[in-house]
Amino acid sequence: MSVGTTTDVVPTLEKAKGELEAMARIVESEIGLVARAFEGLAGHTDTILDLAAAIVGRVENEGVSSILPKVQTLGAAARRFIAERLQATTGILEMVTTEVKLLGQLTGVACSQETIALEIKALSVLTNIEVVRLGTIGTGFQYLARELADFSKSVAEDTRELAGHTAVGRAAIEDARRVLSAELPRLREELARIEVDLGNALATVDSSLAQLSRTPMQFRTGVEDIARQIAGVVAAIQTHDINRQMNEHVQEAFALISARMRGAEDSEDGVARELPRAYAGLTIQIYQLRSIKGTVANWTSQIRACMSGILKVSAGEVVGIGPAVLEQEQKVSSQLARIELLERESQGYSERIQRTLGGLSNLMQLVSELLKRSKSIRDRLRLLAFNAIIETSHLGTQADVILAISKSIKEISAAWSQITDQSGRAMQEILNLVKQTNQVMEAFSQARNESLREAQVQARAGLDNLRTAAEFAGRQAQEMKAATEKMQVKIAQVGKTGDLLDACFGRVDAVLTEIESVRLQLEIDQPDVKEQYDAAEVEQLFSASYTTELERDVLRAALRGGALPVVQQMSAGNSVELF
Prior knowledge:
By secondary structure, the chain is an all-alpha fold. Helix content is 88%, strand content 0%.
């Protein structure tokens, strides 16, 4: 506004008073709507906080934090189980292959024994013929013929027994070797794949459990922050009563200044005396209007920030916890089932290998018995050969045939000794092989699986708790989602009211501009007007109706030219720090 003369002050003040009155009427009803809306929002946040607290409580009560160590223990046990099986499968196939070679050696022993049995039988027949030819002088050699016949029969029986057991054992081991050759690569591949899958599943469960532990608390913290903001907004809105009073007192001051200016218009001296008071009054009202503007800007900013925060609040993360954790629980349970299946398959291999080893152990016992008998036969053959040589030395050339037979027996004894030594070495190798295989088979023993089974039991119990907590979180989160959606609908409605309030409070700026223009024109028209009023008189004149200490502080700042009191301090009762 452009003020040409001091008489223009009155209409300007009357217009400003009308603007403030109109603003007050509109703001009063809208402020009530905002206050009631935020009181409702406070109720919604309480509901969400209760639901979030229930989720957090359930997560803590179910010991979700202890599930991860159990699953990690299971993972370590499963990896040991897998590593031991992988190592064992490699050794077993090598040992079974060695078994086949040993049985091949025993087959060679059986063939050699069979050849010797035929030689002994031939010597027995030849000895009987020579005994008949010698007549009475050859009767001493009849025992030799009988011994050779017994040896031939015994060796033939031993050979058949060894050959039969060797054939059966070799067939069984060959069958086991073929099966293992085909199955062990698949088993190793399955073990390696499960190890990778298990590692991935454990890593995902680790992440899911961490999310389950953090998200409800983070969500609750966020909602608590919103609740504090809402409380701050409610407290800030309550300061509107102070603003309303300040607005009314500004209007009263405008009316008072206008009335006194009209009363002084009759004389030039009267106007000269009144202008300094009017100037001081205008300065005070400018400060009061600025204070009102600052307070309104403060709590409208709080409202906007709170509305923005509420719109960002979403139960989406919490809603997704249940399904996500359940999915991971199912994956881990699936891995547990695969490990259990693998364990059963491993036990099947173990039983098959143990049966093979059982046959090998029986074969070893047979070879041991045959070795004892072979040594006995070797000793008897040596004795027979020795006795026959001595006996034939008494008969001279008449017993040349018997002497040749005796030498043959000695040669057979030497050959038999070699077979005995070969059988001994085979038995020792089989014994070593059985020991090695037994050590390898420890990896497939039930006792070695106990730690894995215990870890499986603990993990399953933990996963059951996890599933319970996740299902509960899912149900609670759905209710939280509904509550947040209601809040957001309410905020959308409040947003419209906020826009209207912004438009209304914009009138304060217009009034300030007009009043500041009037005061500036007074300074131009009356350069010394600032020093011509009595501060005490002016304070008494305009503070008579003040009901708050804030207005008095603003008045003193205006008269002394000081800084306006800090706006944040105007939100009486609101000590909440809002973002």
